[in-house]
Amino acid sequence: DIDECAIGTHNCSTAETCYNIQGSFRCLSFECPSNYRKVSDMRCERISCFNYLDCQNTPVRITYYQLNFQTNIVVPAHIFRIGPSPAYAGDNIILTITKGNEESYFGTRRLNSYTGIVYLQRQVKEPRDFLLDVEMKLWRQGTYTTFLAKIYIFITAHAY
């Protein structure tokens, strides 16, 4: 594997981030939706919300992640862990994949009241890219707060 990102042989624009994968690379662009501001390379935070319902239903934070696996990964495979930090007694989370799982390759499970996982539940036989939106609703002291993880998953051919 040559790291095209490190040696500069990629063709990503200045607005994109080069991400190395096995045998290739991807040009990713991380934009914050309106009413969000970029607080780091991979994180957006909500600026304001209009009313109680809007505050409950729009993510307070959107974070981007990139994961790289090979087609021979053994399923079921825990690929991502999510939970509030810090976690408090009485916390409770609900995890939902809201986008990108139309073919049901992925599932979610709670490990306990404040930790959940995303797992690969079906073998991906050919190299493929996925972009999952995973929503975590945190119930804490009578209020729901929503967080959104946008997870790029690159499944590449396994090297022999």
Give the helix/strand layout.
Layout: H1 4-7, E1 17-21, E2 24-28, E3 36-40, E4 43-46, H2 52-57, E5 61-70, E6 77-82, E7 92-99, E8 106-112, E9 115-120, E10 128-140, E11 143-156
Care to describe what's here?
- It is found in: Secreted.
- This is FBLN2 protein.
- InterPro entries: EGF-like_Ca-bd_dom, EGF_Ca-bd_CS, Fibulin_C, NOTCH1_EGF-like.
- One of its GO terms (molecular function) is calcium ion binding.
- By secondary structure, this protein is mainly beta.
- The chain has a domain at 49-156: Immunoglobulin-like, CATH 2.60.40.
- The chain has two helices and eleven strands.
- The protein has helices spanning 4-7, 52-57; strands at residues 17-21, 24-28, 36-40, 43-46, 61-70, 77-82, 92-99, 106-112, 115-120, 128-140, 143-156.
- The strands form three sheets. A six-stranded mixed sheet has the order 3-4-5-11-10-7. Strands 6-9-8 form a three-stranded antiparallel sheet, with no helix packed on it. A two-stranded antiparallel ribbon has the order 1-2.
- A hairpin with a 2-residue loop joins strand 8 and strand 9.
- The two termini are 12 Å apart.
- The model has no long low-confidence stretch (mean pLDDT 94).
